[in-house]
Amino acid sequence: MLRRWLGRFKGYKLLEGYRGVRGDVGAVVDLLLKLNEVVEKEGIVEMDLNPVFVYERGAVVADARIVVGERKRFEMDVGDISFFFKARSVAVIGASTNPIKVGNSVVRSLMSNKNLRIYPINPNASEILGLKAYPSVKSLPEVPDIAIVTVPAEFVLDAVREAAEAGVKGVVIISSGFKEAEVEEGKVREERLREIARKYGIRIVGPNTFGIVSVVGGINASFTPMFSEVKKGRIALVSQSGGICHYIIHKFRDSGFSHILHLGNRCDVDFPDVMRFLREDENTDVVAVYVEGIDNGRGLFEELKRLCSEKKVVVMKSGRSSVADKASVSHTGSMAGDYRVFASAMKQAGAVVVETPTELIDTAIAMEKFEVSGGVAVLTIQAGLGIVAADIIESSGGRLARFGEETVRKLKSLLPPITLRENPVDLSFSGLNLKVFAEVIDTVCRDDDVGLVMFLYAVAPPSWVLPAEVISQIMGRITKPSILGYSSTPENYAEIKEALKGSKTLIFDSVERAAKVAAILSEKRNYF
User: Which residues fall within 8 angstroms of residue 149, CB to CB, at 6 or more apart?
Assistant: First the structure.
C-alpha cells in the first residue's frame, strides 16, 4: 500500500528510472516505516529530512531537523447514538399549529410512521395535527426516547436541560443561532450546550441541523416530510450541510438509503460517533460523507480507519478554495483546513475521495453494486465518446485495461480497419450487427486485465437507434461489472433505465459521470 501511495508523487518517476539509473524504492519504503515508528515512540512533533539521497541500492539521510516535545492529544469519547434510530417515542419541543413553521413540519415528518408515539410540546395549544399537545416534557405520560428542539435559540438551553432532567437520552436541535452565528452570544450558548451534555450524559445532534432520518427504521426526525418518501437501501449519507442532503435526495431519491444524518454544528455528536454507529449497523454497506470542516482530525481518522475496515466509504470535502473556506466558518462554525492534507489522510484511512456531490453518490451507488479488479474496457459505436472517456479515466487516476495479444488479434479479425480496435474499442457501423457486437463483448470479457466494461451510446435517430430490448441484451451479455453511458431524450433515457432495472448494470446520462465512476472503481483502492 505504501508503494502505491509513493506512486502518486510526481518525483516517483525518477525512482522508476532516469537516464538508465533507478532508485531503491524498497529503501524509501523502509525509511518511511522506520520514521513512522520513531515518531510514534519518541514524541516527535516536527521532523525535516533534507536532503535524502536515494541510490540504486539504499538511501541516505544527509541532514535532519527533529523537534521533540509534548504532542497534542486527540483523545475523543465516542459514544452510542444508535437509540436515535430505534426511537419509539419522540417529543417535539416547539411544535406549532402554523403549517409554515418548522415545529409543524417536524410533526408532519414524524407522522409518516404510524407506530411512532409523537408528543407535540406547546403550552399554548391543546392539539396539533390531530395529536394531543402538552405544555412541557415533564407533563408527558412517558419519558420519550428522543426530543426534537425547534424553539428560538434563546430558549434552547432551558428546553434541553428540561429534557435531560426528565431522562431523555438524546435531542436533535434544529434551532440555529449558535457557533455559526457571527455573535459571541452564539458561541457561549453552544459551549453551555456542551456543558449540559457532559453533566447529564445526554447526546445532542446539532444545533443548526435539519434533523436525522432513519429510512430503514421509518423515523423522519427532520423538518422535511419529503424524506419519508426516500427509497430504502444500504447507503448511509452523513453530511455537515442540510442543503447538500436535500440536493442529493432530489437527484437520487430512488437510489436506496439506510440513514441520512445532518450533523450541523456538531456540538456533541460528531463524525466519529456516527462512523462507529454505522460500522456496527447491519443495514449499511456503503457510507457517503460530506465534510466542510473538522475539529478533531485524529479522532475522525481513527474512526474512519476502523469503518473502512468493514464498510466501503466515499468522502467529499468542500472548502478547498479560500472563499469556500471562509464561507464554511459562517455555515457551521468550522474551519476547512488544508485540503491536500485532508484528502491524503482520508485515502490513507481507506476511503475514496471525490470532488462533487454527484460523484459522491454516483460512487457510493457503484461501490454498493460491485467491486472491480482490473482496468476499464471502453466500447462504443461513436469514436468521440470513447476517446473522451479514455481521457477522463486516465486523467482522473483510473486505468484503461491493457488488452492481451489474443484479445487484440480477435478484435482485429472481427472489426474493419476503419474502427478503433484496441482500447477504447469503436465498433462504428459494425456495432449495428448484433452478432458482431456479441462476439466483441465476449472477446473483451475473456481478457484477464478487464475488470469493468463500459458501453457509451448517444442516440442518433433515425439511423442509429438501438431499441430498449437490444440495449438490455447487449448489457446483459457482459459478464463483468458494467456501466452504460446513455445520451438521449429524458423520455427515452427513462425507458432504458426501466429496461435495465434489477440488472447488474449502472446507467448514467453522461459520458463524464460514467467515465469518472469507472476511473474511481478501476483505481486500486484499499477497500478491494
Answer: 93, 94, 156, 159, 160, 163, 171, 172, 173, 174, 175, 206, 207
Distance CA 406, CA 268 (A): 60
Tell me the C-alpha distance between 499 and 468, whole Å: 6
Pairing relationship of beta strands 117-121 and 59-61 according to DSSP bridges: unpaired
- Is cis: bond before 141, omega within 30 of 0? no
**Residue 387 CB-density burial (10 A; 0-12 exposed, 13-18 middle, 19+ buried):** middle
Amino acid at 490: P
Helix residue ranges, H only, 19-112:
25-42, 102-110
Specify burial of residue 52 (Cβ count, 10 A radius: 0-12, 13-18, 19+).
Answer: middle
Kindly give, in sequence order, each residue whose CB lies less than 8 Å from that of residue 135, ignoring residues fewer than 6 positions away: 121, 122, 123
> What does the pLDDT profile of the chain (528 residues) look like in tens digits?
556 656 666 666 777 777 777 878 778 778 877 877 777 677 787 888 888 888 888 888 888 888 887 655 556 678 999 999 999 999 999 999 999 999 999 999 999 999 999 999 999 999 999 999 999 999 999 999 999 999 999 999 999 999 999 999 999 999 999 988 878 898 999 999 999 999 999 999 999 999 999 999 999 999 999 999 999 999 999 999 999 999 999 999 999 999 999 999 999 999 999 999 999 999 999 999 999 988 888 889 999 999 999 999 999 999 776 554 455 444 444 544 578 889 989 998 999 999 999 999 999 999 999 999 999 999 999 999 999 999 999 999 899 999 999 999 999 999 988 777 789 999 988 877 899 999 999 999 999 999 999 999 999 887 677 889 999 999 999 999 999 999 999 999 999 999 999 898 999 999 999 999 999 999 855 333
Burial (0-12, 13-18, 19+ Cβ within 10 Å), 289: buried
Write the burial class of residue 77 (CB in 10 Å: 0-12 exposed, 13-18 middle, 19+ buried). exposed
> C-alpha grid cell for residue 494?
427513462
- Measured CA to CA, the distance from residue 406 to residue 447 in angstroms comes to 8
As a whole number of angstroms, the distance between CA 193 and CA 172 comes to 12
Would you call 424 helix, strand, or coil by DSSP?
coil
User: Which grid cell is 398?
Assistant: 483510473
Give the alpha-carbon dihedral of 371, 373, 379, 383, to 10 degrees: 110
Positive or negative, the CA dihedral 480, 278, 207, 329 is: negative
Query: What does the H/E/C string look like for 346-364?
Result: HHHHCCEEECCHHHHHHHH
